[in-house]
Amino acid sequence: TGFDGHIDTPGPGPHSLYILKQDEDRSSLPFDEIPEGIDVTIKARNVTVKGPRGELTRNFKHIDMDLKKVGSKFIRVDVWFATRQQLACVRTICSHIDNMFVGVTQGFLYKMRFVYSHFPINVALSGNTVEIRNFLGEKRVRKVELLEGVNYVRSADVKDQIELSGNDIAAVSLTAARIQQATNIRHKDLRKFLDGIYVSEKGPIEIEE
């Protein structure tokens, strides 16, 4: 009834080692290594990660699995009697936790560029709201709320660029997506009207040595 052995797969970041072992009733990724300087607490599938940049908490109760800390250096994820879809969730959970490790040590940065052919796009921060003006010459002001923990910076060295940064990759990427979707063009030929605000670069913040 199944596969007996192991499959080595690379992790999404420098901190992960995954080994998939499957017997008749259990599938697990037993090793998600905890980097130095990070404190992890797991209680009832609530994972809290503390690091130099702050603290992140994520709830995984929507997945039926066994999530526990092994010693002080590893996290083990077990799924029992798993289907193919549930097996995919095991690796996904490890990727989420790995992103939390990167978030509390380096943080995530998304860079967005303004694209326009005639009408310059004006973007400004008002309190906690990003305001987009003069898009396609329209008078309407488009407003996007910054999610909690997301920082907005207008690039000083690059023209028509903004930078979104934070510890939570979900909050940073969702804010970038909302800004991009606020400038979606409707009822026009999208091959001709390419104006908008687009993500040009994304990834962990580089650590200055």
- Helical/strand content category: alpha+beta
State the share of residues found in helices, binned by percent: 10-25%
Shape: elongated
Order of helices and strands: EEEEEEEEHEEEEEEHE
From the structure above, extract its key features:
209 residues; alpha+beta; four-stranded antiparallel beta sheet; 2 helices; 15 strands; 17% helix; elongated
Structure commentary:
- The protein is α+β, with helices and mostly antiparallel strands.
- The protein is built from 2 helices and 15 strands.
- The strands form 4 sheets. It has a 5-stranded antiparallel β-sheet, with helices on one face. A 4-stranded antiparallel β-sheet has the order 13-14-9-15, with helices on one face.
- β5 (46-51) and β6 form a beta hairpin.
- Mean pLDDT is 86; it is low at 1-24.
Which SSEs are present, and which pair or pack?
Blueprint (H helix, E strand, L loop, with lengths): L6 E4 L6 E6 L3 E8 L5 E5 L2 E6 L2 E6 L6 E5 L3 E7 L3 H22 L2 E8 L6 E5 L2 E5 L8 E4 L5 E4 L6 E6 L2 H14 L13 E9 L5
Antiparallel strand pairs: 1-2, 2-3, 3-8, 4-5, 5-6, 7-8, 9-14, 9-15, 10-11, 11-12, 13-14
